[in-house]
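Progress note, sequence design subtask.
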């Protein structure tokens, strides 16, 4: 017991003095902002990532992420000693290790903890007494305790006694200028008091508010609850969009007006579907775990099914109105998809509904091009590897004049919508992009879908 208290006290003091060495595994849209925020708070930080190109770019001080301040990475490298590496030896010297790796869906649309398991196995080979391991990646309730913990304990060290184990779900919102890693309250959970106290102390050094909860599983469930709530409500408003359109009612105007109610209502907005690494994934993890313990979540499953078919609905509507309004079949029609990222103003195509809609239209015989200022060249994606290498069509009057239809799938701010509105093509707006910018004269060529 004395040894446990000594390990706890040593790490506690080191965190309080800001000289605890921190390693962040995974330098993506979660891990890199976290690593930089911790570094900016005065801790010695090293990022670990297997992507050699990303490691090199970070160490060269490149911006790396478009919505970061231009010099943020460079300042951290130059002034605060922040660095990145692909050498796992760095983990042995770290006092705090934070895991921020992807947890995508498998081809069967089930939870895939491959990256978490690999991270745990890498840590386990170098784990030493007194370290704290925190998982931030989305997992199902119970996963940290039943998947991560046993791997870490293979060498004989025990969580809560020899090392400390916590879960703190990431809450990043890429591209959101109003909320940063520092300003978003941080959930912290652990199965023992010492681990919880240390994790709470650690995050309390660089975020404005921490919210301790009673267990690892509770903290894991918080993340799933947050995004499942969004999934269900997005499915609901997209369903209302279709029904209200049939009634001749603009759902965007309805939502805007309903949002003036100061209680009992929260606005959710229609779109082409859900994307990213959270909203499409969290409900799957929650529903899968519910079935695993003998329960069911039929409302969640129905919302997932609704969102999964959103691209089909969009493509079918484009095909129908091309024939009805444009007098031509979708087969052979030239269609420009405007925006392929899963959300505005970010360079991220994970689970992108825009790409799903593009592929659906091409399966119908359409000749599709895309324009996205964040993707001059289509990246290699896990979801749609066959699209890699395509090039963004320059947004010129000449290029727009060649299109039969333009589908606004992602409403990036750095797009000339006035120029797009001048094109003679049919305009299919899934984001209310034109109305939101005060552009409203289309001569019957506008379809909100």
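Output:
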């Amino acid at each position: 017991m004395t040894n446990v208290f000594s390990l706890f006290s040593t790490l506690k003091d080191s965190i309080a003095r800001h000289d605890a060495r921190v390693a962040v595994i995974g330098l993506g849209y979660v891990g890199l902002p976290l690593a930089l925020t911790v570094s900016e708070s005065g801790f010695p930080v090293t990022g670990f990532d297997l992507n050699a190109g990303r490691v090199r770019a970070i160490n060269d001080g490149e911006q790396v992420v478009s919505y970061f301040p231009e010099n943020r990475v460079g300042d951290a490298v130059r002034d605060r000693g922040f660095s990145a590496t692909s050498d796992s030896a760095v983990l042995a010297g770290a006092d705090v290790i934070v895991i921020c790796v992807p947890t995508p869906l498998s081809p069967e649309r089930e939870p895939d903890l491959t990256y978490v398991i690999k991270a745990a196995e890498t840590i386990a080979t170098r784990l030493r007494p007194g370290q704290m391991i925190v998982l931030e990646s989305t997992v199902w309730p119970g996963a940290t305790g039943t998947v991560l913990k046993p791997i870490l304990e293979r060498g004989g060290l025990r969580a809560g006694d020899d090392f400390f184990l916590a879960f703190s779900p990431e809450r990043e919102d890429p591209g959101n200028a109003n909320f940063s890693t520092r300003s978003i309250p941080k959930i912290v959970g652990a199965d023992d008091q010492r681990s919880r106290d240390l994790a709470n102390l650690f995050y309390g050094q660089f975020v404005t508010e921490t919210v301790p909860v009673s267990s690892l599983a509770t903290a894991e469930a918080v993340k799933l609850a947050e995004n499942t709530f969004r999934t269900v409500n997005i499915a609901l408003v997209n369903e209302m969009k279709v029904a209200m359109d049939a009634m001749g009612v603009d759902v965007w105007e309805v939502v805007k007006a309903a949002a003036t109610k100061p209680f009992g209502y929260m606005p959710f907005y229609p779109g082409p579907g859900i994307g990213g690494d959270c909203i499409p994934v969290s409900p799957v993890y929650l529903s899968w775990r519910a079935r695993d313990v003998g329960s069911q979540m039929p409302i969640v499953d129905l919302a997932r099914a609704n969102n999964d078919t959103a691209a089909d609905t969009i493509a079918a509507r484009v095909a129908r109105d091309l024939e009805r309004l444009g007098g031509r079949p979708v087969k052979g029609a030239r269609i420009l998809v405007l925006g392929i990222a899963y959300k505005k103003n970010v360079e991220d195509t994970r689970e992108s509904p825009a790409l799903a809609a593009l592929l659906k239209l091409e399966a119908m015989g359409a000749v599709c091009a895309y324009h996205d200022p964040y993707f001059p060249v289509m990246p290699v994606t896990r979801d749609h590897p066959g699209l890699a290498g395509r090039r963004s069509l320059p947004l010129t009057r000449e290029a727009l004049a060649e299109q039969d239809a333009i589908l606004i799938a992602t409403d990036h701010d750095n797009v000339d919508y006035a120029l797009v509105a001048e094109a003679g093509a049919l305009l299919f707006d899934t984001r209310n992009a034109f109305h939101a910018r005060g552009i409203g004269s289309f001569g019957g060529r506008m379809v909100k879908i």
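The longest helix spans residues 216-246. Work on this subtask will continue into the next period as scheduled.
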